[in-house]
Design brief:
Blueprint: H1 14-40, H2 46-98, H3 132-140
Helix pairs in contact: 1-2
């Protein structure tokens, strides 16, 4: 048996599906019981109330668990797609670094251009560290007195 090209994403649902099915079976049982009591006729008693409450409660539980299972599955699919996208981005960056013309260039990502007045220290390079005080000063503008 051959291995798949990419690992299969985690798809939650086996246990969730069990509980959704279990709630559905119980709901079906309560609805049938309520239907039998209603067809027999007679005054409404506590047994009718128990059957109706059970039918409504188990139906709502089944719907909530089904919605939760659907949300988990869609989140798992989105997570797997995001992981694939990150791997593709990193692979493309690696390939671009290997194809770069200059030896020191890794990947030419565009940096946001700032106005010359916004950067107060012009003698720093792009990768140099900026002290926290100067970063805060730059972000606040000229509020310091």
């Amino acid at each position: 048996m051959t291995e798949p090209d990419r690992p299969v994403p985690h798809r939650p649902g086996a246990i969730s599906l069990f509980f959704v099915a279990k709630a559905g079976v119980f709901a079906l049982g309560f609805w049938i019981w309520l239907l039998v009591l209603a067809v027999r006729g007679g005054p409404a008693t506590g047994v009718h109330l128990i059957a109706a409450t059970g039918a409504i409660t188990t139906t709502l539980v089944g719907v909530v668990l089904g919605a939760r299972m659907a949300l988990q599955r869609s989140a798992a699919v989105r997570h797997a797609e995001l992981k694939r996208l990150l791997v593709d981005i990193s692979w493309n960056a690696f390939a671009a670094a290997g194809n770069a013309d200059e030896s020191g260039t890794v990947v030419p990502f565009p940096f946001p251009s700032a106005s010359p007045e916004a950067d107060r220290s012009t003698n720093r390079g792009l990768g140099d560290r900026v002290p926290a005080f100067e970063r805060g000063e730059r972000n606040r503008g000229d509020r310091r007195r």
